[in-house]
Design goal:
By secondary structure, the protein is mainly alpha-helical. It is built from eight helices and two strands. Helix 2 runs antiparallel to helix 3 and helix 4 runs antiparallel to helix 5. The longest helix has 30 residues.
Length: about 200
């Protein structure tokens, strides 16, 4: 979901940067020393999962695991994902420094939204309800992120409208895989370290 350099218009870049600064500020305000290792761990998970990517026009399809970040971190997903996206841009030239704000916001904001929507459901004692909300958190975060990427491209020029739909369609398999991985990860944590699910 990294948007490359030189594609987005200046207003879109400025809006993405401002929203990312706001989200990161909220996340940092909520962070304490006890949560720092969890934030660092999930930032590393995000970084590694996103390394294998398939180019789709001016963006790329890859695992993100932002739904997992949102469930476990809430607003702390912003600083965690910002660190991962920054390292991608600096070390591997995925995305870029000018698109850092848009790329971070498009992945972190859906994580926060789906984290809050699915929070109660993943704590249910009913395994079917739990599984449904775990899948929704993973798949829904990717769907919203793909929509935000498409919206950013479309806002930068009507010529990107077709590519925007292609990006959303290309992420349908990723949505399914993310939903499954998120479910397994949350169930694993529920068995070995249930306190991690309560933030």
């Amino acid at each position: 979901m990294h948007i490359s350099e030189g594609i987005l218009s200046a207003p879109v870049l400025a809006t993405g940067a401002a929203l990312t600064v706001a989200g990161t500020a909220i996340g940092l305000k909520k962070m304490d020393y006890e949560k720092l290792p969890t934030v660092a761990l999930l930032s590393a998970v995000f970084f590694i999962a996103s390394l294998v990517h398939v180019p789709v026009g001016p963006a790329a399809a890859h695992l993100v695991l932002n739904g997992l970040c949102g469930l476990l971190l809430g607003w702390l997903a912003f600083p965690a994902i910002l660190v991962g996206v920054s390292l991608h841009a600096i070390l591997f030239q995925f995305g870029g420094l000018t698109t850092l704000g848009v790329n971070t916001f498009s992945m972190a904001f859906p994580a926060v939204i789906m984290g809050y929507i699915c929070r109660t459901g993943i704590l249910s004692s009913n395994s079917l309800v739990r599984g449904a909300f775990q899948f929704l958190a993973g798949a829904g975060s990717i769907f919203l992120a793909a929509l935000l990427v498409g919206l950013s491209l479309t806002a930068s020029g009507e010529s990107f409208r077709t590519v925007s739909w292609l990006i959303v369609a290309a992420h349908i398999p990723v949505m399914i895989v993310e939903g499954i991985i998120t479910g397994f990860a949350i169930e694993f944590l529920r068995r070995i370290r249930p306190e991690a699910l309560y933030r």
